[in-house]
Structure formats: C-alpha cells, structure tokens
Write a structure and sequence with these properties.
Order of helices and strands: EHHHHHHHEEHHEHHEEHHHHHH
Radius of gyration: 22 Å
Structural class: mainly alpha
Number of strands: 6
Largest sheet: 3 strands, mixed
Shape: globular
Strand order of the largest sheet: 1-3-2
Number of helices: 17
Strand content: 5-15%
Helix content: 55-70%
Length: about 325
C-alpha cells in the first residue's frame, strides 16, 4: 500500500530517527551541526537541504525510466490505495527511501510519502525535466555497466555505448555535461585524461593491473536491453572482484596461453550476464584437480563479499 501522508518530511524524519540517528543522517548529507544543537534544529537543516529544488531535481535525474513511470502513476492518487504489484511498485521508491525522502515499511509492505515531497516531485516533473532525466539516467546506466564489467573505460567507448540506444546521440562534450549532473552519491567514477576510472582502481597497482588485463580482450559493446536489464537486475560479479580472480589465477601454474584463454572465456561469460555457478564450470580443464577448483571457489566468495555493491535494492545475489 502507498500512503500519501498529510505530515511533512520534517515530521516524518522526527518520528523515524532518534537524535543519534539524526546526527548520522546529517553526517551522510555533509550538514554541519554543533553537539548542543537540538534534534529539531538539525532536522530543519536536513530538510532545507533535501527539499532544495535544484538538489532534489538532480537526484531525480538518476531514477530509472521504469521507476519514474510507476512514481508518476502512483502520485496521481490523493490518499492511500492498495498496490496492484507490491514488490514491483514498492521497489520504484527504493532510491527515494535511500535518500530519506520516503519511508518504506517492509513488513507491512507500505510506502509513506510526505505531502511536501509529493508536491515537489509534481512541481519538478515537467517536459524539460523529463528530457534531461532520460539523458542523464541513460548515461548513469551505461557507467553502472562499465563500473561492474570494466572498471576503466574511455569516453569514446562510453559514447559508443550511449549512442547505441535509439533516440540518443551525444558528443564527448555532452557526455561530460551529463556526467556533471549525476549526484556525487551515485558516482563511482572519476573522469580524468579522457577516461572514466572506478574509484576502487585509483591506486596505481590496481589501475595498472586493469590496463594490463584489458589487453587480453576486445571491448564487446552490449545491447541496450542488456545494459538496462543489468541495471535493473544487478550483475553476477564486479570488475573489482574480476581483477582479484585474475591476480589469483596468475599464482597458478598455467601456461601463458591457457591463462589468457581462461581469462578471456571467464570475461566473455561475465559480459553475457551468466551467474557464478555456471562460471565455475570453466575452471574444469584448466586447473589440475578438484582441490584447486574448490580453493578458487572459496576465493571467489571472499572476493565478492569484500566488493562494495553499488545498488540500493540489494538484488546482487550470487549463485555459488
């Protein structure tokens, strides 16, 4: 059930959070406060930030086409109503919940939306906003794909993926501008020297290892539906875990030919979105015995556990 609350965002945050919770929320939003500030004063500063029209618009830019469509449909209603597809429609508000604009009660399967948040969405949501949102979100989805599967990608490669979708045509300058509109909360890349580089790879050794690894394969450009499916469903493994697998494989006694062949096969399988249970089959024939396969399986699990997930809805599940 979606519940459009008569109460304000201020009142909702006041009900949800303790003083300690409000301190943590202010820290996340980079809002300064004094230790002797009252809870209500800090909440007011947080709400002033969250309901700033430019700030809110920027965060709506990265809401997916699918979720934005559902949000528009639901916000036309004036009060509470039963959802037709609870899990799907609740999920449309996951990003807003993570940003503290709404409150999702998972046990009761309800979404509570303060009226001032609803009214601000309706105010912002016009034709010009939608044109920009579609462009920024599509770049966000492309970069999300690049983060998980490559870690390092050139702006020309991003342009190729971006422009592969019907109705989208951006220059390098356009891509740079759209990138500047993605909120820092959602960015996992730094843009430098005509490359998008995942934050995780900024250490020199990690970056050099990735550059070396990328010599083994050609960039295989995904279809538009693959990028969107991957964005909505999550990925089987991230580029960071993949690099750790590569480093582990290099400790084994494989010939250079077998190593390259194995890594290329593994990479191609990941690109196709296969789950890890299937990927493990490719270890057979390359490693010496079952103990080594088991050892690598455990290392895969550990690599995945340590990899930070860039998804609010928590659907990055691994079948091992």
């Amino acid at each position: 059930m979606i519940v459009l609350e008569e109460l304000s965002l201020f009142e909702m945050l006041d009900q949800i959070y303790s003083l300690e919770g409000i301190h943590k929320l202010a820290d996340v939003r980079d809002i300064s406060y004094d230790e002797d500030d009252t809870k209500k004063k800090i909440i007011k500063d947080i709400v002033d930030c969250l309901l700033d029209e430019d700030y809110f618009r920027e965060h709506l830019y990265v809401i997916s086409d699918q979720h934005m469509k559902i949000i528009r449909k639901l916000l036309k209603h004036q009060d509470r109503f039963i959802l037709s597809n609870r899990s799907k429609e609740n999920e449309a508000f996951i990003e807003l919940d993570a940003l503290d604009y709404v409150d999702i009660d998972e046990e009761r399967e309800e979404v509570f939306i303060p009226m001032d948040v609803r009214n601000l969405i309706l105010k912002i949501d016009n034709h010009e906003f939608e044109k920009t949102r579609r462009k920024v979100f599509w770049l966000h989805a492309v970069l999300y794909h690049a983060f998980f599967l490559y870690g390092l990608v050139s702006i020309d490669e991003v342009c190729t993926m971006y422009n592969s979708r019907a109705g989208f045509n951006a220059s390098r300058e356009d891509i740079e501008y759209y990138f500047s509109l993605i909120p820092l909360d959602f960015q996992k890349f730094v843009y430098m020297d005509d490359n998008f580089i995942a934050f995780d790879l900024l250490k020199k050794d990690s970056l050099e290892s990735t550059k070396e690894l990328q010599q083994y394969y050609e960039m295989k450009y995904p279809r538009t539906d693959q990028i969107l499916d991957h964005y909505n469903e999550g990925y089987p493994i991230s580029s960071i875990s993949y690099n750790r697998i590569d480093q582990f494989i290099r400790t084994k006694s494989l010939s250079e030919y077998k190593e390259k062949k194995f890594m290329r096969k593994l990479y191609e399988s990941i690109i196709q979105g296969e789950k890890l249970a299937k990927l493990l089959d490719y270890f057979d024939g390359y490693l010496k015995d079952e103990d080594e396969v088991l050892f690598i399986t455990r290392n895969l699990k550990e690599a995945i556990k340590e990899t930070p997930q860039y998804k609010y809805h928590g659907r990055n599940e691994y079948e091992i």
